[in-house]
Amino acid sequence: MVFAYHEVGFRCLEWLLGRGVAVSAVFTHEDSPGERIWFRSVADLARQAGVPVLVPPSLKDPALVARIREWHPDVIYSFYYRNMIPREILAIPRLGAFNMHGSLLPRYRGRVPINWAIIHGERETGATLHHMVGRADAGDIVDQEACAIGPDETAQDVFWKVTDAAVRVLARSHDAILAGRAPRRAQDESQATTFGGRRPEDGRIEWDRDGASIFNFVRALTEPYPGAFSEVRGLRFVIWWGRPVDLAAGERPDPGRIVSVEPLIVATRDGGFCIERFEWASAAAPQSRQFITGERVG
């Protein structure tokens, strides 16, 4: 039985089906109207394979739990399913329940771990398959594989790497899981970090940070994610790409001040940030959508 969503869900389910694994049912989500869908559909893949697809609003319905028991699943896999699976369901499969997470656990438990890793300037992340317990991403590790984060890579660039790693981890682990020999390596709680989900409103740039941190923030949130943003005169503009630049000591105004318009450079704590690609998000008159040297953004 599979609980899955997003591209990792698609690729891992695709691997199981290609291996001839009998998947009794797939639980997934409806696409959110406000979310840019840049990944393939788990539901479409399952239906094409003749696998029943369920999109319940909640997994806590006793009738649903009873129905899952009637399927007698040997294994439950969760591949980027967005809701916590209740303990009552985790206890059902004979051989256990396993989740694929997009980080090197115990670091970066929680939501959008790849974006958070890039925001924090990490040079490495990965995919981890672990036993599921009542706490999110806290169960014993079955297997994991690291992926490098390149200095200019975006969250989507890294996501493709992590997706490939997730499939390889699943392929390495599946036979042992079916044989009841899934490895168990306890997570070191002293090394655990946890981060929550991110909303578009969390993308506001803090210009009093150093240029490298702002660059990491921009590349972590650039397309296909909602983007980092700032405002001038109440008009929002989304920054899709840019670079830190050095400024002479005498040319450094307060962070957030526009240093130049062509190229567009905003002062940071340690220099400037050159905005190479941006988009106005506010529907204002064209003449008001302009930058003025010395003006503050924020």
The strand count comes to 14
Return the average pLDDT rounded to an integer: 96
What's the arrangement of strands in the largest beta sheet?
3-2-1-4-5-7-8
Rounded to an integer, what's the Rg over CA atoms? 22 Å
Broad structural category: alpha/beta
Helix content: 25-40%
Number of helical regions: 7
CATH topology heading of the largest domain: Rossmann fold
Distance between the termini: 48 Å
Whole-number total of structural domains: 2
Classified by CATH, the class of the largest domain is Alpha Beta
Profile the largest sheet: 7 strands, mixed
Order of helices and strands: EHEHEHEHEEHEEHEHEEEEE
The outline comes out as: elongated
Corresponding CATH architecture of the largest domain: 3-Layer(aba) Sandwich
CATH homolog superfamily of the largest domain: Formyl transferase, N-terminal domain
Unreliable spans: none
Give the DSSP E fraction (strand runs of 2 or more residues): 15-25%
